[in-house]
Amino acid sequence: MPTKLSDIKKKLDSNLGKRLLLKANGGRRKTIERSGVLAETYPAVFVVELDQDENAFERVSYSYADILTNTVQLTFYDDNKGSVLSQQ
Fold first, then answer.
1. What is the model's pTM?
2. Strand intervals (E) in 1-88
3. How far apart are CA 64 and CA 72, in angstroms?
């Protein structure tokens, strides 16, 4: 797992446009699982466009610190094979 925010951003930049499964800590022992596509990266946050048939809203954003602190976990999938491409 990367230990610097800049390393996390670089890894996400290399996976732009790829499908992913997002697991986030929802508080009070709740885990939120959503699927979508990594849409954009900015200096402090990244944006995931969610699948519309499963979610009430279109996009969510998280900071790179959320990945560093394991509040958010991302699993990228290979579109052709459906297999796990990389996990953060």
1. 0.84
2. 19-27, 30-41, 45-50, 59-63, 72-77, 84-87
3. 9
Rounded to whole angstroms, the Cα distance separating 51 from 47 reads 13
Q: What is the pLDDT of residues 3-62, one digit of tens each?
A: 899 999 999 999 999 999 999 998 899 999 999 999 999 999 999 999 988 777 899 999
Neighbours of 61 (CB within 10 A): 13
**Tokens matching residue 37:** 């596509």
Element (H, E) at 10: helix 5-13
Cα–Cα distance, 70 to 62 (Å, whole number): 12
Which tokens sit at 39?
Answer: 């849409």
